[in-house]
Amino acid sequence: MSNWRVQTKNKIKELKKQGFYKNWGKKEFDLIIFFIYPNLKIDNEWFKKRINSYKKNAKILKVKPPKVNFFLYPSIEIGKKLGTTPAICFIKMKEIHGHLNQSPGHELTHILLGKINDSKNLPGNGLWQEGLCTYLNGTNTNQKKHALSLDISEETFNIPWESWSNHLPGSLYPLAGSIVQYIVKVYGWNKIILFLKKLRNSAKNQNKISLQIFKKSLEEIQKDWLKWIKKG
Ligand SMILES: [Zn+2]
Predict the structure, then answer these.
(1) Which end of the chain has fewer surrounding CB within 10 Å, N or C?
(2) Is 232's pLDDT higher than 90?
(3) How far does the centroid of ligand 1 lie from the alpha carbon of residue 113, in Å?
(4) How many of the other CB atoms lie within 10 Å of CB of 209?
């Protein structure tokens, strides 16, 4: 786990012990219980977007969506003042600490992926989790266009995907989103879900699984994806 994740996790534990969240508001829906920063006013549309995105993505990923506790902060800055970074998902605890301006679906998709495979096989910060959560983030962003609009170097485009199995830099989430976009387009969801289910031990077997399921190595798929993305 990266440093900010460990710090945030510990700080949240401490805040809970101190009873910090006791005076937060509560809004309960069938699948998500929102705990809301004191006096924060949110319109119903905001909640609806999260719930709809969660349900829609559960169907796409063919999982039963578990009930989630969602702690909502007004902004990432307010969280940082408290010593946390509220853009985090604890998959096993089924708990999200998020802020108002995040995309509707990103963090919730992490919870759904936890139903497909354990995070020791499919790491939370790795290419596959972050690519899927970015692609399914509930906005209409075209990840290919988004990735191309960033100043990503030629070198970065060519880094073998395997080197990101455990930890993908935050600046590359759109790139990861475009990888998922491509694989969905060419191979479809059934094969992707099967691929995710079969990953073992921090995705160490991903090349072998890729050959089995996509009938191509990841290296070959990366070359195909490069051609596709370079066409713009
Ligand atoms: Zn994420």
Answers:
(1) C
(2) no
(3) 11
(4) 18
Cα of 132 to ligand 1 centre, how many Å? 9
Distance 127 CA to ligand 1 centre (A): 10
Ion ligand 1, residue ranges at CB < 5 A: 130, 133
186 Cα–ligand 1 center, Å: 24
pTM: 0.95
**Cβ distance 37 to 72 under 8 Å?**
yes
Instruction: Tell me what pLDDT residue 9 has.
Output: 94
Confidence band (pLDDT; 50, 70, 90) for 5?
confident
59 Cα–ligand 1 center, Å: 19
Tell me, what's the pLDDT at 61?
98
**How remote is the CA of residue 103 from the centroid of ligand 1, in Å?**
11
DSSP assignments along 80-141, one per residue? HHTT--S-EEETTTTEEEEETTS-SSHHHHHHHHHHHS-TTTS-TTSHHHHHHHHHTSSS--
Task: Kindly give, in sequence order, each residue whose CB lies less than 8 Å from that of residue 148, ignoring residues fewer than 6 positions away.
Answer: 229, 232
C-alpha to C-alpha distances, 145 to 140, 170, 201, 228, 231, nearest whole angstrom: 11, 17, 32, 12, 11
CATH code 3.40.30.160 region(s) in the chain: 3-116
Domain 3-116 has CATH 3.40.47.10: no
Question: pLDDT digit string (tens) for 47-105?
Answer: 999 999 999 999 999 999 999 999 999 999 999 999 999 999 999 999 999 999 999 99
Q: Which H or E element spans position 70?
A: strand 68-73
